[in-house]
Amino acid sequence: MDLHKFRGGYLRMDREILDSKAYRTMTKTGMLILQDFLSFIQWDGKQKFKGERKTPARMVNGDALTYSFDEAERRGFTRSSFNRGITEIVERGFFRIQKHGTGLHKDCNVYAWMYEWRKWGTPQFTPGSRPKAKFGVGFKVGHRFYPPRGVDGRTSIIVPPVILEAQPETAPTSTVDDT
User: Fold this and answer.
1) Band of the pLDDT at 157, cuts 50, 70, 90?
2) Any idea of the CA torsion for 72, 75, 77, 79, to the nearest 10 degrees?
3) Cα angle at 98 between 95 and 100, to 5 degrees?
4) What are the start-end ranges of the E strands in the chain?
5) Where are the domains of the chain?
6) Into which CATH architecture does domain 15-119 fall?
7) Torsions phi, psi of 160, nearest 5?
8) Measured between alpha carbons, how far is 79 from 5 in angstroms, rounded to an integer?
9) Dist. CA 88–CA 115, nearest whole Å
10) pLDDT for residue 88
11) DSSP category for residue 5
């Protein structure tokens, strides 16, 4: 299975990242997801003519990276482990969420590269956050499928009632005239 079938080039990972405390203390899943993100980055600065000096490499798309849950599943990650890995990467300062996706109609999060990971483990470090999306998707209060809350605040699992048409009970009628 060729995971990088439609992408050419290489993965660029500086030694500074490899030697950092933020990278060294990550989980295996977090490391793999970070490496996938780094393979999505396109670099510019190649040598144009033979003998010409190379220009320093720079990121071309470092502020517009997408990595969807569907793509993560194709790469072998479960949704829960991918979610934990993304949270770990954002909290350590490697990426921030540029735009929150809704999860509907192929609208996924857009991530941007950050250098905050260099300060990880120091007092100057400010951890990234991954807040819950509040788009108003789902059933609203008052809808019959809205999950009612129990006394302890948890959602109780109740199957919605099936609405049956009630047949009115009527006295049997006779066709014979009794008069």
Assistant:
1) low
2) 30
3) 115
4) 43-44, 58-59, 65-66, 95-99, 110-113
5) 15-119
6) Orthogonal Bundle (1.10)
7) -60, 140
8) 22
9) 15
10) 93
11) T
Instruction: Express each pLDDT in 78-132 by its tens digit.
Output: 999 999 999 999 999 998 888 887 766 777 888 888 888 999 888 998 888 877 7
E strand spans, 47-141: 58-59, 65-66, 95-99, 110-113
- Residue 67's pLDDT is 85
Please, which residues have CB within 8 angstroms of residue 98's CB and are 6 or more apart in sequence?
63, 64, 109, 110, 111, 112
Q: How far apart are CA 5 and CA 7, in angstroms?
A: 6
Per the listing, tokens 């190649």 go with: 46
What values do phi and psi take at 163, rounded to 5?
-90, 115
For residue 48, give both structure tokens.
């144009």
Q: What is the pTM of this model?
A: 0.64
Max Cα–Cα distance, the chain, nearest Å: 120
Contacting residues for 104 by C-beta, under 8 A, at least 6 apart = 137
Reference 59, options 112, 3, 15; nearest CA is 112
